[in-house]
Amino acid sequence: MNELLSGLGKAAALAKYELQKLTADEKNRALQAAAEALVREKSLILDENARDVAEGEAKGMSVGLLDRLRLTEERIEGMAEGLKQVAELCDPVGEVLERFERPNGLCIEKRRVPMGVIGIIYESRPNVTADAFGLCFKSGNAVILKGGSDALRSNIAITDVIRCSLKESGITGDAIQIIPATDRAVTLEFMRLKEYVDLLIPRGGAGLIRSVVENSTIPVIETGTGNCHIYVDESASLAMAIPIIINAKTQRVGVCNACESLLVHEKIRERLLPELAKSLKEHCVEIRGDERVRQVIDCIPATEEDYATEYLDYIIAMKTVSSADEAIAHINRYGTRHSEAIITENKENAEKFLNEVDAACVYVNASTRFTDGFEFGFGAEIGISTQKLHARGPMGLKELTSYKYLVRGNGQFRE
Amino acid sequence: MNELLSGLGKAAALAKYELQKLTADEKNRALQAAAEALVREKSLILDENARDVAEGEAKGMSVGLLDRLRLTEERIEGMAEGLKQVAELCDPVGEVLERFERPNGLCIEKRRVPMGVIGIIYESRPNVTADAFGLCFKSGNAVILKGGSDALRSNIAITDVIRCSLKESGITGDAIQIIPATDRAVTLEFMRLKEYVDLLIPRGGAGLIRSVVENSTIPVIETGTGNCHIYVDESASLAMAIPIIINAKTQRVGVCNACESLLVHEKIRERLLPELAKSLKEHCVEIRGDERVRQVIDCIPATEEDYATEYLDYIIAMKTVSSADEAIAHINRYGTRHSEAIITENKENAEKFLNEVDAACVYVNASTRFTDGFEFGFGAEIGISTQKLHARGPMGLKELTSYKYLVRGNGQFRE
Predict the structure, then answer these.
(1) Cβ distance B329 to B231 under 8 Å?
(2) What is the ipTM of this complex?
């Protein structure tokens, strides 16, 4: 095994025992101190970030990627603010989830405990370094980070500042470690560091997530891909439908909870589509529709591929359906189990949609954009899970914990 | 993709939508009917099993494996009884886990739902076919089974009887499907049937489990490996310690919750070990001890390898420690996160052990053999999870479910 990785793994596996014993107060004080340290040491972080940005420019990195990479005083203050917010959240560790006694007198307590060591693999934005640390630390976990190669200097600088601050708080710096290497072989080996890492979370594009799912032997939580639909039922209120669709499609097009496909009941298409198309056009959204959509509005023909595509762009696919059942079947075929919405005044169809659509979050008369840890009131978010094992939808602090059974007896053995 | 597997996957993915809509009553009646069908069709099952057994004998299969493979009228009645017991358990599907309202008026309900499609890969015993079906079906899931090649005819016969019975109950037979092939390539491909299967559970030896963890792209729950310890603290009651150790070591040596290593506080070794060694000897258990153990009793020297070994045999490793801390550190180093016990009259050490040992089930003054779905009162068990993601320890019906968020609004969109 790669010595670098096994060294990081061993250090994290030791740190986790120290972290699981910390009280909420100790963790909160350390988070506050780390937040202050980030602001105090911002010139150091900005200097390292400037070197990353200069290298990115020299390599011809796109303006969009450079913007994601670039830190400013304001962005560093945002990271610090994030850590302070996490300090204010309830500590999930130690919660008694169940307690019961067996006929033989055994008292069984199911208690929430940290996961242990969490690995996070992410792409450009260096602020994830601080955000991920905050959530993992507050939930009692050690974290090993593997950031994007373009942001390596920035990530190391942020990690160093937090490690120093933790030590000043009397806590092991190994609560946060970053892999100081960028080659793919190391990333692949990290995905197999099962001896030391309890959970691996990829944060990034579809390619990164696929690679982690394919290669990891560590349990993974798959996040992010969202081919989200809105279905406008026959009985929908247009005054409700149009603002929701515009919001879900255009408020931020590059996010996983944005709407990618619209399903329209055939009996409402003539009332809905002309006004909707006008509004979408004003927001520069390209429409790709099926034949029955194109009978009502002028747009590009949609293909099967369109229905399967997460555009993350100013494009929307539209398809006409004859019933809520047809809409549900389409979503269950093409959706990615992320967020799906129905707009309807028909209670029966609303309940049918809620029950039968297979997705993390299913909405009636609201925008899919609400699938988010902050919007759900979790106070923070490490990602949106699109798998069914362990956690589904927005993942906050609780979703970074496991549990154990504590069994108290007085001499019981099995008959 | 293998056409056989994609056909099974598609059928299961369709069946899951039908199964998730079934009421508890409908499922219970179908389970009762399937139980009766197994008994009614037992001669068919016994005939097919006899062919498997004959082939096993011809291949020179060991007496132990032949015994696990062989079905009898009694064992078929046991399988039927198992299905009836599952029918009597509470249906976990539909339980509202949380319900909260956001300041913007969105009502969010977190509801327990089936996992969808569960894959199970298991070894010799054909009764797993019926047991696994019962638990998956009651929790609203379709199941695809891959049994051991030696039991293929038996497994197909059991599956066919259940499928026919389901159809007579008006339910899709595709609730249970078995892969009618035994070659390794098909098994490997099954582990990558991610498009259709939501969860894969391996049940069997360490080699099978390792292969699934290495190769699966489907989320896995790792089950079974148990290098379990009992630590006898300085203050332990010998009257409690000895029966617990004898039980944990000898009641059934081949199970994952049996005790493999004993840790003894140095100050109790002279009182404990002679009597314990005598009793272990009466149960034909071989002792392998460290130097300080061998100063008190006559036994084979223990090596580092002994401490890391899950014997599943009439062998126990013994090591002397100077404190509860040393015992905890040893367990956290060599344990497999399954079941660990302390025998003590010292409350402080008991709580320290409960808090600091990293395992699914941690015991004070009781045998590790209680780590079991029936003993925990879950009424059934699909396996013992030794990972931290999703489920830990005994897994019953609830552990075969996921959840989804149902969000009801009245026109909300994101600001």
Answers:
(1) no
(2) 0.95
